[in-house]
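Example for tutorial group B:
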């Protein structure tokens, strides 16, 4: 399978060559964005340990803060991803709106993944989601990158011929 992934030429092509790892919603401000995650590399068990699955009432994760995608952040990101155990990288794609349940009577509105991407790009930031599994006492962090040079560089680690 990895050979097929290596020759992917576009983001859509790459997503088709990967198995979906998780489906749910991301909340940022008052927006709920349905998405699918496809794992490109890293620890396959991380997802099971830290992300709620579909039996957990169509999970929703909340972006709690933003990190500027400056040079220092990018350098540290690659150092950490290569030297720390318990890492995984995912490609996010839009999911059908029916994947998530919009809270009734709340201020949360259903939005598309492009809305999140535009917001993060405009701010020059990565979204950060804190993950916690109370039963296993495991914690982690999920960084959401917008389409940018950094995210393309990260995906090219597994798909060398990837174009924007």
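The residue assignment follows.
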């Amino acid at each position: 399978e990895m050979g097929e992934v290596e020759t992917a030429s576009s983001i859509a092509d790459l997503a088709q060559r990967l198995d979906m790892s998780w489906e749910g919603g991301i909340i940022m401000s008052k927006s709920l964005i349905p998405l699918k995650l496809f794992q490109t590399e890293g620890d396959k068990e991380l997802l099971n340990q830290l992300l709620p699955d579909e039996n957990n009432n169509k999970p929703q994760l909340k972006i709690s803060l933003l990190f500027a995608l400056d040079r220092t952040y990018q350098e540290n990101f690659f150092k950490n991803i290569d030297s720390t155990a318990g890492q995984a990288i995912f490609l996010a794609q839009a999911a059908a709106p029916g994947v998530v349940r919009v809270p009734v009577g709340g201020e949360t509105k259903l939005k598309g993944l492009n809305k999140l991407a535009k917001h993060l790009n405009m701010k020059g930031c990565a979204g950060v989601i804190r993950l916690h599994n109370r039963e296993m006492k495991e914690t982690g962090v999920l960084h959401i990158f917008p389409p940018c040079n950094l995210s393309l560089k990260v995906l090219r680690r597994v798909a060398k011929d990837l174009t924007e």
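The longest strand covers residues 31-42. Compare this with the pattern of hydrophobic and polar residues in the output above.
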